[in-house]
Every structure is written in C-alpha cells, then in structure tokens.
Amino acid sequence: MELTTVATPSLWIVFTGLVITLLAIDLGVLHRTVREVRMREAILWSLVWVALALTFNAWVYHRFGEERGLEFLTGYVIEKALSVDNLFVFLVVFTTFAVPKALRHRVLFWGVLGALVMRAGFILAGAAMISRFHWILYLFGAFLLVTGIKLLREGDIEMRP
Fold first, then answer.
1. Could you tell me the pLDDT band of residue 69, with boundaries at 50, 70 and 90?
2. Does position 65 have pLDDT exceeding 70, yes or no?
3. What is the arithmetic mean of pLDDT over 18-34?
C-alpha cells in the first residue's frame, strides 16, 4: 500500500468543515443556554477533545505514515503545553473585566475562535509577503526588537480597564 505524503485540498476542506461543525455543535447545541460550567464538566469535555485529537492523530498515522503521525502528535502536545499559560491569562482577563461565571464559556469560545481566524489571516498574509518580499523578514525582526525594548523600558504600568 502506497502512502500519500501530502494532504489534498479536499482533505483540508473536509478537515476545516469538521472543525467548524464541531465548534457549531459546541456553542449552538451543547452550550446554547448561558450557565456556569463546573470543574467536572470542564474536565470531561477536555478529555473528549483530547480523545478526538488522538483519534485524528491515529488516522493521520495510518493514512500518511509514522513520520507524519509523530509530527502531528508532537505539534499537538506542544500546542497543548503552550496553551496552559493561556488559562492564567483568561483568568486575569475574566477577573479584571468581571465577566460573570455563566458567560465565561461563551466569551472564551468567541475569543478563541476570533484568535484562530486572525492567526490564520496573519499567517497567510505573512507567508505571502515573505515569499514575495524576502527583505520583509528584517522589517519584522526590527519590529519585534523595538517592541521588546519598549516593553522592557515601560516596566509595570497601572491598568485601568
């Protein structure tokens, strides 16, 4: 059996459609009513989403081979680990803006969805710019350097939302 090493556009369309469908079910069906999500339910849903990702990983492994399966798993584990710090950011934002516990799931859902859409847009625009104008990498690097220096100089500032 010959393994395909590149995902086709139709696979990307099906994958994107599946993700959008699952997100729509999450907000439109499972969390249609505004209510507080308890710890037990949050843990259960986290386990469901992790199991779904691992099931997809098994499909990638069988469809595209060991290397691609390991690449997906590695990327997923790294993303999962990096997302833990977002929990603290969300807690600070929710506390600062006094978001009621019953509305936190909805605010979080739309915030994450918005971040995904904007991230995809920035990645696509950045990749197009870099492929067309290689010199722009230096501009991006200079922007990051100046921003980092500015943040270091500002120190702690009082936030008034």
1. very high
2. yes
3. 82
Task: Report pLDDT digits (tens) over 93-112.
Answer: 898 899 998 888 888 888 88
36 near 101, Cβ under 8 Å? yes
Query: In whole angstroms, what is the distance from residue 18 CA to residue 79 CA?
Result: 20
Measured distance CA(49)–CA(52) in Å, rounded: 5
Cα–Cα distances in Å, from 43 out to 10, 37, 53, 57? 33, 10, 15, 21
On the CB side of 136, how many CA atoms lie within 13 Å of its CA?
A: 10
- Return the higher-pLDDT residue of 48 and 3: 48
Cα dihedral 113, 93, 46, 18 in deg (nearest 10): 0
Longest Cα–Cα distance of the chain, Å, equals 62
pTM over 0.70: no
Under 8 Å between Cβ of 109 and 27: yes
